[in-house]
Amino acid sequence: MIFIHAVEPALRAYGPVALLDYPAFVPCLAKRGADLRTVERWELYHNGIELANCFSEETDPGRVRAFFEGEAAAKKAGALVRHDIDADYWKLFSAGFPRCSGVALGLDRLMMALFERSTVDAVLPFPME
């Protein structure tokens, strides 16, 4: 994730910023862009803090299968804790699947931004240990 680590520190100088169209080499199940070099993914930042993550879901069964097979191989090669993957998940997309997308908003991070706090511990209702 060299790309993200090179960009994120510079975002502290700005208020709200949306990063769009991630490079295709960043592993995720996002749909490829028309140029095939990017994926349809965006993230929302505020003062360098990631608030939300979103992407258009990949619905091509072959690409979904290849993604999970790659994840399984990577885990087998070096994961300290190995979790099984759903080897049949890609089959859900074989009958056709509509374009879809979703967004994950970190409410704790949003609260940090709203209350101008520098750590998530400052806004959590319970201690982190």
How would you portray this structure in words?
A 4-stranded antiparallel beta sheet has the order 1-2-3-4. It has helices at residues 2-7, 61-78, 107-114; strands at 16-23, 38-46, 49-56, 101-105. The chain is globular. The chain is α+β, with helices and mostly antiparallel strands and 129 residues long. Helices cover 25% and strands 23% of the residues.
Beta content comes to 15-25%
User: Tell me about the biggest sheet?
Assistant: 4 strands, antiparallel
Distance between the termini: 27 Å
Count the beta strands: 4
Q: Which series of helices and strands comes N to C?
A: HEEEHEH
Rounded average pLDDT: 86
Low-confidence regions: none
Q: What is the number of helices?
A: 3
Shape: globular
Portion in helices: 10-25%
Give me the secondary-structure category: alpha+beta
Strand order of the largest sheet: 1-2-3-4
Task: Work out the radius of gyration.
Answer: 17 Å
